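Exercise 7. Given the components listed, write out the predicted structure of the assembled complex. Treat all entries as one system.
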Amino acid sequence: MPRPKNVVVAQSGGPTPVINSSLRGVVETCMAMPDVFGTVYAGLHGIEGVLKEELINMSAQPAEEIALLSTTPAAGAIGTCRYKLKAHQQEDFERVIEVFKAHDIGYFFYNGGNDSMDTANKIAKLAHERGLDLVATGVPKTIDNDVGDSEFKLIDHTPGYGSVARYWALNIQNANEENRGSCPSDPVLVIQAMGRKIGYIPAASRLADPDREMPLLIFMRESGLTLEALADRVNDTLKLHGRAIVVVSEGFDVGDIGERKDAFGHTMFSASKTSVGQVVVNYLNEVGLAARGSARGNIPGTDQRHSMIYASTVDLEEAYKVGQKAALIAAEDGNGYMSTILRQPGPIYNVYYDKVPLELVANSERTFPKHWITPDGTDVTDDFVRYARPLIGEDWPSVPLVGGLQRFARLKPVMAEKKLPPYELQAVREKK
Amino acid sequence: MPRPKNVVVAQSGGPTPVINSSLRGVVETCMAMPDVFGTVYAGLHGIEGVLKEELINMSAQPAEEIALLSTTPAAGAIGTCRYKLKAHQQEDFERVIEVFKAHDIGYFFYNGGNDSMDTANKIAKLAHERGLDLVATGVPKTIDNDVGDSEFKLIDHTPGYGSVARYWALNIQNANEENRGSCPSDPVLVIQAMGRKIGYIPAASRLADPDREMPLLIFMRESGLTLEALADRVNDTLKLHGRAIVVVSEGFDVGDIGERKDAFGHTMFSASKTSVGQVVVNYLNEVGLAARGSARGNIPGTDQRHSMIYASTVDLEEAYKVGQKAALIAAEDGNGYMSTILRQPGPIYNVYYDKVPLELVANSERTFPKHWITPDGTDVTDDFVRYARPLIGEDWPSVPLVGGLQRFARLKPVMAEKKLPPYELQAVREKK
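Answer.
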């Protein structure tokens, strides 16, 4: 019997609190099938690690550390990257194939969003052209919940979203305690939410208050409202309630904020010259509040995607299972699929795991359903709440503490032996 | 036997995750001594509620809600205020005495910082001049840990600080996972810490990494460093480690940020036109990083003082006990003291509770010990770590969830019957 082909797993893009739960799912499942899968490697910092032949041996790690991945947030364990393999830049793609051949890789798991599914698909195609029988499998991930299509046929929701939704539900509860306690002199708290193009994250604030008892206003990019309209709604709320909690998307249109772009050409809002939250605070303080005191702002930034204790237990489990399912698909169905989460119809939340072709995901686009935004543009509907509520779960996750600090997974630096000449990344060449 | 005098408890200034734990301590202890204390009222929104004769009847609340105060963050339950009773504005002081007389108040508990201890002291003095035998007792609170003196003789640390220290310890751990995972393209994360004048909060970041394994730089106001020096240290760290986590105090001197002031004349950093964190991010991106990618920034703002799950169990217990102690002092020692926490010498963390005269606290000032800042100005010493480490405790607090959401205390709106004509606050008069 031939030796089973080896495995590379890699992550791409922004992290989530549960990204490592999917990693654990892939690794443990591959290791449970030694007849199918050989050594499991992880690309250090995603595809960059593959290009640079920096492959961590996951099979050589202590089982305890692999288990601890589930409660280790963000991508610190194996790293991620924002390095884009450009279609016109054949060199990078050829290098990936070369590295895969050198290490007898037959399986490639790529954890990311639509862009990453496209990349995985292209790598698999080129591999086949170059005579490498590669099975490429996608594992979905984004906090933005923007993977798949708007009809939820390809995927119901993306792992990572449930946790950031829970972050917003619980943090708006906390913020409401401060706002209602401090309101005579400190009446407006503006909080900026992530989600550059799509409003699932700010929308999740509504989960803090499904009965609409708080003076909570949600300004998604999709509302199409102006800064003037925003200020009017805030002042209307101040007149009624004496206070307001204003959640605004980082993508809400306030004009020029001195944006910076990442390698994908996406705006990196937290690296901009100013922030939407700050612009909103300044505007409210300039036009004047219909109350004593000033508006103030919080920009939690990356905290919302790496605060482990806010992870949803439902999300943690689902992230593990899509990783597990990806390994099963690779073993049983072969090349070209992404594992997916689909919801069973009916009043009880229940999901099942399936596969969808990478190509369908790569060419899909999700938008926030228009009918989930209220007519005045400052709230989301009960249908959205019914969709999102189950994703945040019921309980706190068990995040182990040792010496008062979080005990995160720490992988041993056991790397695959390098077999190829060094390769210089385009981004490094550009920096010189 | 005469009917025991009634009680007013009130909160002042910015909240903490454990402020309500002290409130619970005062209320439960007073209610346990019905021979000494009559009905316990709370001023709605602090001294503003006293002036407006808006007094919540705490004795009429369900025991369950009072117990839940311990895991209810910030000041939502009874409210706080930033309303300053000005010494030259005799009218407000006279009104407080009038309200106290009307409701047969013999005990006044004031929860706050040095300013509030001063106010409590002045109210007690005027009460005595006006023939009201008032026992005023202070309950210490601030996240800044700036109550008392720099020799820790009046108080070792202030309730509230241990929880915000824990927030920073755990959040820097989380941020480090993201930063090390994303560093090739996203190498610098700047996080702005609260603490307008004093660096205990940014200093607590060191608790995340007592062994100094992370590329963590702490820029306190007290460092006296310039923005240029900051950028140099960041780039030195990038050259060594390829990444950096930069904690910067909101009070770090970066020049004009368009400050706004609160009623005390204190800068409200989160209401400023820009933020120190943003200025640092922009400066780093302008001078250029010694690495690929951009600097990005998080401004957690009020989140660090109202995120309940990050509260320290040690802080929660101590906050309760200083509230309890305040009630005991009022009953046994009479007027003019603040309850305090003092640390027993020796290697094992152990505290005891005592009293100090309000006047001493009112006239004291704490600064961050200079010898706890490292010579290069970007770190704190092991002595600081030994001081602060015990305050963050060992475990997660038990924050109850119902329906996936935090179950906070909800007081019934049972108010004392108004007995006086209405009174208009100065701030309201000014707004007109």
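Discussion: Residues 161-182 of chain A form the longest helix (22 residues). The radius of gyration of chain A is 23 Å.
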